[in-house]
Structure formats: C-alpha cells, structure tokens
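Handout, section 4.2: multi-component inputs.
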Amino acid sequence: MTYITKPKLHHPSLKRNAVGFTRRDYEGQVSTLCAGCGHDSISAAIVQACYEAAIKPHRLAKLSGIGCSSKTPTYFLGASHGFNTVHGRMPSVLTGAHLANRELIYMGVSGDGDSASIGLGQFAHVMRRGVNMVYIVMNNGVYGLTKGQFSATADKGSVAKKGAINNDAGIDLALMAILMGASFVARSFSGDKEQLVPLIKAAMSHPGAAVLDVISPCVAFNNHKGSTRSYDYVRHHNEALNRLDVITGSAPITARYEPGSMVEVEMPDGTAVRLRKNAPDYDPSDKAAALARIQEQDSAGEIATGLLYLAPGGGTLHENLNTVEAPLNRLGEADLCPGSAALESINKSLR
Amino acid sequence: MEETNIDDPNYFLRVVDCQWACPAHTPVPEYIRKIAHGKYSEAFMINWVSNVFPGILGRTCDRPCEPACRRGRVEDPDTVGGDTAPVAICRLKRVAADYKDDVSAQMPRAPALIGKRIACVGAGPASLSVARDLAVLGYEITLIDHNPKMGGLIRTQIPRFRLPERVIDEEVGYITGIGNVHFDNRSVGSLKGLLDEGWDAVFVGSGAPRGRDLDIPGRDEGAANIHVGIDWLSSVSFEHIKNIGKRVIVLGGGNTAMDCCRTARRLGGEDVKVIVRSGFEEMKASPWEKEDAIAEDIPIINWHVPKEFVTEGGRLVGMNFEIVRAEYDDNGRRKLVPTGEPDAFIECDDVLVAVGQENAFPWIERDIGIEFDPRWDMPKVDELTMQSSLPKVFFGGDAAFGPKNIIWAVAHGHAAAISIDRFLKGEDVRERPAPMVNIVSQKMGIHEWSYDNDVALDSRVAVPHLPKARALSDIGAEVELGFDPELAWKEAQRCLNCDVQTVFSASLCIECDACTDICPMDCITFTRNGGEDDLRSRLSAPALNTEQPLYVAGGLDTGRVMVKDEDLCLHCGLCAERCPTGAWDMRKYLIETAQAGPPCRNN
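Output:
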C-alpha cells in the first residue's frame, strides 16, 4: 500500500468526456493491495472504460464479495454506489438490486475464490437467469489473502510458490458461464488494457449477463516459474481470438481492416462493436464451436482470450418475469395498492 | 529512440528545471529542503558555494529559475485554489540568509600564497566571484575600482529599500575575510599600463558603466533637470543627491527605470510617471518590479515615444511624446508607427533617463592584442572560458557580453576562475571539468522515503511588505520584509523535489503496469520504440514540451521500451511505491558544478 494519496494535480491535456468528467474523476481511493497486483490494472481499465463510455458515476452500482478482488471497488468509481456483500453472495445481492431498479448499470466484482469456490452455486444461477450485469472475475488462481494456497481455478499441474503441485482439475469460469447461459463471455489479461478496456465497454452495453474472466497475476504468491498465472506465462501463452473496437455514438471510423477479417455487431443501445478477428474461422455466436475452441486451446496449453461468446438474442430477467419498468423506489401508493377492484379481478382470474 | 544515458550528469541536471536555468546551477531543491527543515545555515552555505551572494541575490536576483520552475507547469487553478505560480525560490533563498546562524567559522581561509598575482578590474559581483574562487587556492587577488567601496552595481545602482547596505557589507566581507583579497581604490585608465604592472593574469569585470542618453531636442537646455538613471542612482546611493522635484518623468521600461521611479518617490517625488515606448507586456522590467512600482502609485504609460524636452526660460517644464502603436511585418518584427493622435505634453520638474546601458572600454588600447568585434566595439570573449584574444586577460559579468544580471556575473566569475587557474598551471583552458554528481537512493523502507514525497496543493505564498506610508517615507527602509520561518516552511512545501529522480532498471521490470496506472501525470508509457516525434505523439499523454527530455529504457521481455516524459513528473515517487520489484527507485542527484581547484586540473 501507499502512505500518500495520489496527488490531485494532473496532466494539462486531460480531457472531459461527454458528461463532463475527466478520467481522474472516475478514480477511487488509493489501492491498499500489494504493489504490482494485477487487480489494480483491472481497476485502471474499469476507470478508463467508464470514462470513455461517459458513464455517469451515480448511475452505476458496484457490488463485490470477499477477497483481494472484492476490495477493489474502493479503488475505482469513488462516486458510484457500492455494496460489499458476504463471501460468494454478491450475485444474489446484485440480482435483488437489479430487480428493484433496472435503471442502474450493475458491475459485479469477484475473484476466483469468491466465484469458483464458496460462490460457485451463485455464479451458476445468476448466469442462468440472464441478470443484466457486468460480472468481472479477477482471476489469479491463488488465495492471496491467506498466503498462497491454490484456488479452484488453478491449472492442474501448476506449481505453488513453495513448490507444491496442484493435483485438482481447474475450473474454467468462462466455459462454465457459457454453459450456464451467460450471453456475453470474454476472457482477458490484466496486463493488456488494449484488449480489456473495449471488452468492459462492450460488456456494459450488453443487455444480459456479461462475464469477463480476467487473468490477473498475484505478484506476491503466484508470479513465479511453474505458475500458469504469472505475467510471463500469460504473456507467452495468450492466444487472442479477436480484438474489439467499441464505437459509441457517431465516433468516426478510422481503422481499416482486411476484407473478411472484421465483423460488426450492433448492440441494442446503438453501440456498435467491431470484432477484428485474429482467428479467421472463429465465430463467437456459435456456442458449440466456442466451447470446443476454448477447450482445444486449453489442451494445447494456450489461453484463449477475447470475446469468446456472444449470444444472438435471448430474454433477460425482467423480460422473463414481466416486471414493472419503473424502479421500485419510484412507485407510488396507487401503483403499489391498486385497490380492492384490482384484487378482485386477480382473484377472479385464478378461480 | 536511443536509450537514455542516465550516467551523463547533464541528463538529470536538465530535469531539475530551476538548477538548469540558474546560470550558476545552484542546487535549488536541496537548499529548499534544508529551509523546510529549519537548517538555514546549511541552506545558506549551499547557496554561498554556488552563487556567492545568497542574501543579495535573495532580494535582487532576476530569478531565471522561477519561470523555469516545474510547479508553474503542473498546477491547475482549480486544484490549488489560486493562480498557478512557480515556487518563490528567490525569496526562500533570502530566508536562508536572514535566519542562518553565524557562519563565519564555516568560511574558507586562504592557504599560503603560491606567488601568483591577479588583478580584477571592477569590484562588482563578477570580480568578487573570481576573487573568492581563486583566493582559496593561494592566489593573491587585487580588486581595483574607482568607487570607494566594493560591490559594484550591487552597491551603486540597487536602491537601499530593496537591498540594505549591511547585507552587501556582510557578503563582501565573507570574500575579503578569506584572506589574500585586496582592494585598490583607483581608476584604471589604461589596460596597457595595468599589464605593465606585472600581474600574472587580469580579469575585467568592470560592468556596463555607461547609461545611454537621449539625444532629442531640448536635451542641452534642460540639462540641469535631466539625469542619466544609473548615474543618478549611484549618486543617491552615495548620498550626493538627497531630493528631486515633485513631478518626475522616468523614461524607460527596464529594471533600472523601476528603481529610478521608486527612488524618486522617496526623495520628494509626488507625481512620478514611468513613460515607455513599448507596450506593458514587452517592457524589460521583471513583472514583480513593475507590480511593486504600480503599488507605490506610479503609473506606467505605454506607447509614448519621447520627442522633445520642453524648456521655458532655460528651465525644464515638461516633455512632448509621440503616441504610437505596434505593427508587425511578415517576419514578426515590430515597428512602432504613429497613431496620428496629437502629441502628448506631460509636465514635469525632473526627468530620469533609464533607456539602457552600454559597455565602454576607452581605457583598453586597441593595439595590445585584444581583438574587438567591430559590430559592437566589444572585445571578443570566449563564451566557455571567458578568455580574450590576449591569453592572460579574461572578461566576465556585463563587461563580457553586455548587460545581463548579477547571477550571470557570478557564473562568469566561476568560469573565468577555472580558466585562470588552468592557464596559470599551464593547462588547456578549453578543457572543462564535468560537474560532480552525488547519487543517493531515497529509499528508507517499504514506501518510506528520506524526502517528503507528498505533493502540497497550496498556491504561492505572498511575501509580506512594509506598509506603503512607512516605506515611502524612508529611503533606507526595506520594503519587502521576507518570509518568516512559518511562511517559508509553507512555501518550501510547494517544491516538487525535482532533483529526486525516477531511475528505472529494465532488468527488474515485470511489466505489470502498476507505475503507469498510478502516475498522476500520465508520464509513463510502455510501448514499442519509435522516432522521437512519433513516440512523443503516442504516449499515455502527449509529450509536447520538447525542452524536456524523454527517458527511454529498453531491455524489457516484451521487446517494448519504457518511455517517461520528464516534463510534468511530480517526483512524488508513486511509481516506485507501486513497483513490486524495485525497478523504479527514487534517487537524489546532487549535481554540483565544478569550481576552480585541483579537481578541475589535469595534474
């Protein structure tokens, strides 16, 4: 951690976005994580993405569980709503909040322990229900707060800092999210903001369960030889299937691409997502192919990153439940107590 | 770009903007830290070693360090809650002089004489600097000046209300106190004659003693009430002149004009005006000197070109001025063109002419081997060595390259002293010594540094002034009161410690981005290498100030380079605090410009 706060002085060229904020306005308190933690880079990517997407900070809620990763919401978006929940229970609190007020952007922040161990059940079910959220897993394969035991996402055969070998199969949260029904699934690396920032922006504009499995090296306990989550290992085995450009509003399109190498996907909010394909035959809308490809890369010792799966359509929680559009806190007495005639008519329909 | 060679002492010296801008390269952040710690004597000695006259310069310096100060580039009016401004470096220097203990025991003493005699023409700051640097090496120095006391323009031209005489006496005293420094109160009428006296070397630090006059109609008729500024100031200084008329016109827009008008206010001038040919912004006077003059109810009238002195019955009654405006040609050269308005007549009793100073060397014979540049009728002087074409004659201060200021005179003095020493030891004077660099890591523990890395957000502290009525009633009363220790501490906190450098070791870096993410000024970028222009355009934030270098380091695993734009770095050390591997370290580079003596010689 750092004893001084980050000075408020800033570069004179710092610009304001469409809603009048600079990037620095999206920062939080100074991080108390270990120096060099990948989580801090993800926080910086979230700050950058929210600034670029011109999010109004008070229209976003960040929720987290317990762990190093779940501390990070303190370190970004200091002016947003926040909720530190019980270990592994962030998805249910997020679901509740989303049911009560669908107008906010929900950002769930979790780690591999919080999501793949104690919270695995919650992780699975929140995907099934199509909750409109961005679910970011800061995945370092290790229990950092308890000094470096393997977590459930650690690869089988990887070596701990003190030399122990992991005999258990690792859980691939991206694969699992696709299987469980998430409609936007991506994987990225904390050390590659060029890939990560557009993915966060795209995830925020996706209406449904968007999952980002972000590999985030633990400098203190999982950045050694034999680890499969170290900066070096991930850099050398990172196989990006595609790269995104997120085009909001009427931003001019400047980049040129080889014909056939690019797909444009229109998001429901008018945002266009351009996919630059590194693997020409990879179609992220084909669920079975996506599952197969991720596993093939895994067997080859490579980590597939990029936008792995994007469901063509599908209902969200509110559509499925046919709930009222207005946030509950804005419903008046007349809406909540429609009177005895309304009750009578409901009862009648059930007879 | 090529990788930066941080072993070159000038690389990090450039990053310390204030020290780089100071002609004498005074280690400014080092003494500001001492002031913050209340170690005034140490702060004074750091200054004394570099610039010889801390108390004098702390009041009168032209402060080239302040416009260069990084603080002025990084502040934002919203963040500091006031105007953006550099650190008040000059006035902090004065604090060191005001609050130091007795430092006489720390002053050097002359060793036994080595049998070489040097004459300095003029006893101003350039000659005094030469004397100090060489007396401690065993040379015998004689300062020759026609004024009865040493100090040169410091004593004759700077009014007492800006610089009390006791400060001059004290700081001249430190030099004569070394020993082997003599004062010879006489005029030098012939350089040839002087050389015939058998000196081993001669240093000419005689200043630019001739005030430019204004040859316009009425000059002779009104002569009794028209005075040349610097001569008049000198007469006031030696108390030959004690009063002036009620209505005074001061002609000229430089610092001498400001000293003239403020002095006139104290000698009975009630309606004193400064009248300048150019616009307000183009005036040569330092902004703070203009402010001080305006604060004493002295209007500055611009765009008025003097046309004639008007006399009635042989007595000056006023002046006529042509009113002009500026026009710029295609090359951006300014021309003053009449506006066509009728000439302005301004009444006055006295006029002070402060329209510039000139060098004058009627006493240097043109046939003794000193080459003159015919364009300016100035001796040809080597800018590096201060040597003239006659090897044993050296120049410095205003005498060398025309009017500059005290701190330049000191810098010339240091350079000339090195040359004289090498010359008299038979060594090549063009071979110059590198500065001495002392590098100390500031790391004391995890996230603990031996300097205060927390950046203060306060705006500049104003220096308290004497109430105007009292200041104007006493020509000897110093107007600026200086910072007290508490204000000095507050102002010292604004210094960014630009001498504590961010030093990068690529071999330790794991490219985790922690430094890039935390840097408040977006100075650090990891990217593929490219040409300088290309790199400057695609960093985290554009690097637009080409005066400041890019720090480029290669050898990273990914093949990228680390590029740091030094321009706006706050030296807050957060990059080093967030670095997990110690690839960044904060190291203090104390850079001391070499001075005459054994380290500057080959043997």
